[in-house]
Amino acid sequence: MKTILKIMLLFCVTLTYSQTTVTGKVTDTNGQPLPGANVIVVGTATGTITDFDGNYSLNAPQTPPFSIQVSSVGFDTVTKEVTSTTQAIDFKLREGTSLDEVVISASRTPERVFESPVTVERFGLKEIKNTASAGFYDGLENLKGVDINTNSLTFKSINTRGFASFANTRFMQLVDGMDNSSPALNFPIGNLVGMNETDVLSVELLPGAASALYGANAFNGILFMRSKNPFDFQGISGYHKQGITSQDASGDNTYRDSGIRMAYKFTDHFAAKVNFGWLKGTDWTANNYAGKPGSGDTRASIGYDGYNIYGDEVSTNIRAASGGLGVIPDVVVSRTGYEERDLTDYNAESIKADWGLYFRPWANDFEIQYVGKVGTGSTIYQGTNRYAIDNFIQQQHKIEVKNDNFFVRGYVVSDNAGDSYDMVFTGININRAWKPDQLWFQQYIQTYAGATFNGANDAQAHAAARSVAETGRYAPGSPEFKEAFDRIIKDPDFSKGSQFRDESKYSHVDANYNFSHLWDVIDIQVGGSYRKYELNSSGTIYTDYDGSIPYSEFGVYTQMQKGFDLGEEMKLKLTASARYDKSEFFDGFLSPRLSAGLTVNQNHNIRASVQTGFRNPTTQDLFIGLDAGRAILVGSAPANLDRYSRSYDISAAGQAGFGQPAQITQTGGAAYTNSYLASSVSAFAKSENPADLEIGNSALVTPEKITTAEVGYRGKIDRVVIDMSVYYNKYQDFISGEVVVAPFYGTVGDNGLSIAAIANGDYKAYQTYTNSTADVNSYGGSIGITTKVFGDFDLGGSYTYTKQDFDQAAFPDFKTSFNTPEHKAKINFGNANLFKNFGFNTAWRWSDDYYWQATFGDGAIPAYHALDAQINYTVPSIKSTFKAGATNVLGEEYNTAIGTGSIGSMYYVSWTINNL
């Protein structure tokens, strides 16, 4: 027993003497403390971070001598030797350039931006602190080559290199490795269910195709957001922003955004964190009352259909509806709609929480994580119609096992549409609640005829007819209106309601192993992924009337990377990667990528890459079955075509003149097998020449492919950092929507019965999902320059050129939705340390005009410019930073899309505590 005690005592004494304590402070060259800097023992996983004042205390089990290394984003790394068991070592870090920052996304392995084989943009802790935007996500708009389309105050869609829409299925967004796309919508919903500002470690963005490593959805760019690990970043931090939004249409409204992060390292083996955020404001009011493009209509027009007026989509040719009475003019008349502001409260809200448990069983780089996220809120989404997204919920749950050389993660993403509804069908069905369409048009026709017989001219007769037909209309705000509104938005039957339901989800597993630690000859990675979708909208979005629709896809990839020394001043790095993906509905596809980076004189890097990519048709491309009013959206999966089925009334002329029944049933398959192009039907309506009709019969959709080539340069010339690139994209089988018209009787091309059906108005418009036979290409380039001026002031600017090569006139029914300005320019100017603890930053951006093309509506977007600015003051004694800022300071309202609310200004102050 005495022997055992002696051994234990000796063991404890050994532990005591082997402990080395190193303390100190980390500052920049101006003496300003650097909170959140990493301090590690070289060659080990032992480390700590500096506190808000830049101080650190490191307990290491090693016996001196050994080395410790200090690093901080945006600064050079410094290594010093520890020579005693209790030692104070201070560090002064020199500010580096953006080229020195480390990224992971470009090659799935850590490397300097300078050495990345492809273009990559980074937004780190320093940029988050100094952004002139209201939040870090909004600040991404000031990155080179990045576009943000503003759907609403809380829903913004990021895009690069063109082909953008709010339903941006070409762009991927990962949060700690988890796809942030909504299962129902199949695209990211901004930062609504993303990250709190105090938990963001870094944001990286790859513009262009990245399918070779990240699969089908990484087709037009990919955004990576990484959070802080509680082993490295502990404590309680938080922020609160308070201000107003200001818009001509909605006035001044309160805006607030708060968040808190709590993280604790219990032992070297276990750490945990919790985040909570709440944002609330009033959305940008949409009040574009112009008539739809090409109509030239105003609100006084009898057939008016306005962008942000809903219910006026219901229209008819009153002569055809009258049975061909000669006294009734051959014109289209629409019902009177309701303004969008009558159909939503414009509440913009985001409530999100996440939590994580982190376990390191051997106190080294091997880690097991469980992360959960949940978010809810209200926003507005613009797709084919405008949708009020109320009280939706999205959840994510992940388990991941990893170390420095591998990871295996599995996660599930699910959503619930909550109380969301279609504002267009809300307006349509409120109208129908007080008077059915048939009765409304009957009264209109009868009153017009009577007024004409009594000597009224055409304008007077139309005015009298509308006045009588409008008798009984529910006035906005009246008890009758409110009762109908509340009932309709809770009814998922679009013939009398507007609610859409969804409880879709997908499960995803992916893994990666990096063999670089096993041999030095070449770096090799292998990996793969598997995803299973389960669509469940109860028939309100998809054709899942009888139960959920499951399907799956998988992919495997590899990458090889090799560096060559070509001399003392020249190095070459070659990278080759390839990925094979397979959806259960389509043949497999191989996506290779080849890249080369040549470093000259340590300050100049030339890169070139060629890669192919692809994207599978989305869940909506395949399985949607949705009556959007103007057209029925029918996905082109073979099993989907006949699942969508509806009955339609046949006109009196069709019944009497062509022996048709009073009602027929038509399936969605008619859009793909028996249809005319919608543009040719419009031409026929004007000319009455059957030769103008062109057969549609859209082909079933297949995967879209891209081949892209890029050449770029990064370099440092004295104090000037330059990053530039040019690219060319060639698309094959470009996926988009096509509008067709399916007659209720006859066969297209029969030169008889089908033409009569079109002439009698016996047809239905559909939007199909198909591939273009046209050549679709795009090309462009960007250049960014940053430097120091007037001593220590930061000055940066960028210019981006983006161009589409597509003959729209030759394919009038095919929409590419390029939606990107040809020219963009951005300038940033600021100083993080103008004087002690005080900094400022400004960001100006300009966009050329461009043409917006989408299912909701097309139209020109005028050129615009905006200026954001902020000042900040740090109080070290209370570990706080105070900021006052404003976005769109100049107050010139602008739009990034047709039909959305004009973007006004935002003024705010914020208090951030202990955000390392």
For this entry, give a set of tags.
916 residues, mainly beta
Q: If you average the pLDDT, what whole number results?
A: 89
Tell me the strand percentage band.
over 45%
The percent of residues in helical segments reads 10-25%
Largest sheet: 22 strands, antiparallel, barrel
Name the structural class. mainly beta
Number of helices: 14
Radius of gyration: 31 Å
- β-strand number: 53
Could you tell me how far the N terminus lies from the C terminus, measured between alpha carbons in angstroms?
50 Å
Q: What ranges have pLDDT less than 50 throughout 5 or more consecutive residues? A: 1-17
Global geometry: elongated
Secondary structure blueprint with pairings:
Elements: H1 2-18, E1 20-28, E2 38-41, E3 47-49, E4 55-60, E5 66-71, E6 78-82, E7 86-88, E8 91-93, E9 102-103, E10 111-112, E11 121-124, H2 125-130, H3 136-139, E12 146-150, E13 156-160, E14 172-175, E15 178-179, E16 200-207, H4 211-214, E17 221-227, E18 235-247, E19 251-265, E20 270-282, E21 309-310, E22 315-317, H5 318-321, E23 332-334, E24 338-339, E25 347-359, E26 367-382, E27 386-402, E28 406-416, E29 421-422, H6 423-434, H7 437-453, H8 458-469, H9 479-488, E30 505-514, E31 523-535, E32 549-567, E33 570-583, E34 589-600, E35 604-615, H10 619-623, E36 625-627, E37 632-634, E38 645-649, H11 652-658, E39 663-667, H12 670-673, E40 676-677, H13 678-687, E41 704-717, E42 720-732, E43 735-743, H14 753-759, E44 763-771, E45 776-789, E46 793-805, E47 823-835, E48 838-847, E49 850-852, E50 859-861, E51 864-875, E52 880-887, E53 905-913
Parallel strand pairs: 1-7, 1-8, 14-17, 37-44
Antiparallel strand pairs: 1-4, 2-3, 2-5, 5-6, 9-10, 11-16, 12-13, 14-15, 16-17, 18-19, 18-53, 19-20, 20-25, 21-24, 22-23, 25-26, 26-27, 27-28, 27-29, 28-30, 30-31, 31-32, 32-33, 33-34, 34-35, 35-41, 36-37, 38-39, 40-43, 41-42, 42-45, 43-44, 45-46, 46-47, 47-48, 48-51, 49-50, 51-52, 52-53
